[in-house]
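Worked example 2:
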Amino acid sequence: MLKDLGVRVASAVVLGVPFILSVHAGAPYFDWWIIAAAPLLAWEWYRLIASDDGRFGARGVIYVLCAAMPVVAASLFAPAAALPVIAAAALGILVSAQGSPWLAGGIVYLTAPCVALLWLRYDVQGGRETVFWLIAVVWASDIGAYFAGRLIGGPKLAPAISPNKTWAGVAGGAAAALVVGVLAALLTAGHALALLASVSVLLSVFAQAGDLVESWLKRRFGAKDTSALIPGHGGVLDRVDGLMTAATLWALIVVASKGSMLPWL
């Protein structure tokens, strides 16, 4: 456990610190991270869903380009510009010779969170704080779930899908996210403490659900990890699935409420 934890922490520091700095700096550095992530996610998704014995080929390259285009459009123009590109790319994959609904759906599943993160970060007011809060909630949830699951154990959450996940882990992740929400409220003069605490717990639950969905997909397609790019974590998708779910959910909440409810905005 200690060896595995050491590798995980080292990988998290090497990748996490530059990413956090890019969130603080904004354009163009944050854009570069998201634009780089999209094709890597698509590469992992294609290998998981459609590659034959790990081979990639021309169709895989086309798929990666289809996933990169919406994110590039969001960065160069505006997040709204990415929406028709996502739809066109997904439709093109669906009606092409590749014709897989899994691949077509993957375009939406992978690129929508990337676009959501760019949109949230470049909110005129408070975008940086919002993304920092999202990252803190998801990372705290991951850490809380990991340690609670390892130290407490107990009943399994979904043993047929992910044998290592426990209900104690879910509770530990939610508790850690709750702490982040409380701290975020206190750092903003104590405004909206109940709101931030409850929303942080909600995002934790959805982030963990996103991780569970990815576990189901890997089991469905017979893979342990989406790749081995990140030592101790597996693939990029293995590392950011929770953040993808949380960012997408929060972006939808902001759209539905016609504006963010966060106290720093």
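The chain has two domains: 27-121, 125-265. The mean pLDDT is 90.
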